[in-house]
Design goal:
Strand order of the largest sheet: 5-4-7-8-9
Radius of gyration: 21 Å
Number of strands: 11
Distance between the termini: 37 Å
Number of helices: 7
Shape: globular
Largest sheet: 5 strands, antiparallel
Length: 191
Amino acid sequence: MSVDTRPWSMRQRVAAVLSGQKPDRHPFIDRLELWQKGLAHTGGLPPAYAEMSLNDIHRQVGIGRQKFQSPYAMRLRGVEMSSTFNGEPYASESEPVVPRFPDVDSLTPPDRLGETHIRLSTPVGALTLDYVMLEEMLATGARAYLAKHPISAEADYPVVEYILERIEFVPQFDRFRSMQTQVGEHGYVIP
């Protein structure tokens, strides 16, 4: 009987730890994504890494890749969304699909400086959210900052209740599996 002596993949190590097993060695995974995005934006990415994929960078430095990916999104039934970016019309959509609620930063430009104002209108009222993207945030690979929370007055509660009672979960299993394939055995996708 032969014993498999190959080293475990980073994914196998993480899965073992999560299931209470002992891996061949401790998994070491992290998110170099913010480091890569920030330095790529400022032009400060070391030349050796400039042409490499994120997975290749993780392999090169010996750190497994950690990626958060939701296996579902949320359709905001009965909601009309409109937004402006730096005071100009940006987007308008009926029953938008977002990764999460009430944080809807996915409706903002991810790589542009400025302010996004979002209005979520329902038959019982509207919520407004303001997001800000500063140069410092782009330089660190961060998401836009929520400057005005959707719940700022008592009148906002019935609107949130209306939205929550009608949210439809939209499966995104194929997208999740695709990300798992992209990350491969050198990382772990966390739902």
